[in-house]
Amino acid sequence: MFEFYNDDQKMIRTVVRELVKKEIAPHAAEWDEEDRCPKELVKVFGELGFLGVFVSPEYGGAGLGITERAIILEEVARHSAGFAMTLMTHDLCTAAIYNFGTEEQKKEWLPKLCSGEIIGGLSVTEPTGGSDLMNHATTIEKTDDGFVLNGRKVFITNSHIANLNIWTGKIGVNEKGRNILSAILIPPGTEGYSAGRKEHKLGLRGSVTGDTIAKDVKLGPDAIIGKEGKGAGVALHTIGNFGRSGMSAIALGVIKGSLEEAIKFGKERIIYGKPLVKIPAIQEMIAENQIEYEAASAMLYNATTVYDRGEDAVARLAAVKYFATEAAIRSSRRTMDLMGGYGVINEYPVGRFLRDAVTNIPSGGTSQIMKIIVAGNALK
Ligand SMILES: Cc1cc2nc3c(=O)[nH]c(=O)nc-3n(C[C@H](O)[C@H](O)[C@H](O)COP(=O)(O)OP(=O)(O)OC[C@H]3O[C@@H](n4cnc5c(N)ncnc54)[C@H](O)[C@@H]3O)c2cc1C
């Protein structure tokens, strides 16, 4: 387990844990059952300073890092991985503007995103395949007045609740015939922009996932995020650092939940006239969950600390994303097994943990893609 939290980080964990206990834990099962995203809570997190914590105070943030953000997401995901996903993705929009936006874009949007006054989304994935990032059908056409955006995005978190959206689209092709992408910002209420089909997901049901659609969306000349033609870099940096650390933190919360539920159930359940945890095979399962938590925690907070120090952390975060999200599946499945028949009864949260863990895998890039990134770095 990571043991080197500073005083601020310890305090944030304590405050968020209390908030989650009051506002999230009692409702998480109901949000899952009803497939409801409690979007009203985004503002509560904003008012307490827990959105965009990595943004500097001049733009409304807390001036902290992705380590503090991961601590917040882990605590939320301990009880509702779905709602953590909503917060996680909101911050992707914030991160793209913070890291690549112009001074005007930062001043206009970051305070509203950090306070939760508006909700953000990031639309990159297309029907042609999320792993094949450059294969975009979405077009950004240059006009005399700015740009016109046309396309459809799939599997987009916050699709139906985000007011501020960042899209990637094809703005041209290079001399080798390969697509050149730009990232572009779509302000609230823009004509021609809409949410389409809403997905009925296996897990992460405290978040909304669906299509986003742009039909002849007219945007001004100042709508591009980052340099024109550098949209792939905006997407890769945002997903590679903020997306994967966020998904890993959500997975870590699920592992923690699975560990704690296993211990609680194992102590309460009496079998052969004694608590279940007296059986060595059951102790082994608890040990395995504890080990998964310690390993994932150490990997995640080590990698986020590297990023917060200003060093490159993309390959480390891909390794964490692979390990933590796969470990969350193993841990929740193990707790289900430990509980016997009770493990499949929906009164207990562990079935939801397993569904959340499985649903966690594709977002931010699949396990296969994470291994390609890790191998690419190892073989450099
Ligand atoms: C809950 C959820 C939330 C999401 N939120 C967002 C969001 O907010 N914004 C957004 O833009 N996207 C979002 N996504 C999309 C996500 O990024 C994609 O699902 C992911 O990138 C995979 O793309 P795909 O689903 O098209 O699968 P594909 O890319 O079609 O992959 C299919 C299979 O092929 C494998 N594969 C692909 N290429 C290779 C290769 N080179 N080598 C080996 N195997 C390979 C994959 O690992 C996978 O097993 C979300 C997805 C989910 C499930």
Automatic annotation (TrEMBL):
It comes from the Bacteria. Residues 122-217 form the Acyl-CoA oxidase/dehydrogenase middle domain. Residues 229-377 form the Acyl-CoA dehydrogenase/oxidase C-terminal domain. Transmembrane segments: none annotated. GO terms for molecular function: acyl-CoA dehydrogenase activity; flavin adenine dinucleotide binding. Residues 7-117 form the Acyl-CoA dehydrogenase/oxidase N-terminal domain. Pfam families: Acyl-CoA_dh_1, Acyl-CoA_dh_M, Acyl-CoA_dh_N. SUPFAM superfamilies: Acyl-CoA dehydrogenase C-terminal domain-like, Acyl-CoA dehydrogenase NM domain-like. Keywords: FAD, Flavoprotein, Oxidoreductase. Its cofactor is FAD. InterPro entries: Acyl-CoA_DH_CS, Acyl-CoA_Oxase/DH_mid-dom, Acyl-CoA_Oxase/DH_mid-dom_sf, AcylCo_DH-like_C, AcylCo_DH/oxidase_C, AcylCoA_DH/ox_N, AcylCoA_DH/ox_N_sf, AcylCoA_DH/oxidase_NM_dom_sf. Belongs to the acyl-CoA dehydrogenase family. PANTHER family: ACYL-COA DEHYDROGENASE, ISOVALERYL-COA DEHYDROGENASE, MITOCHONDRIAL-RELATED. This is Butyryl-CoA dehydrogenase.
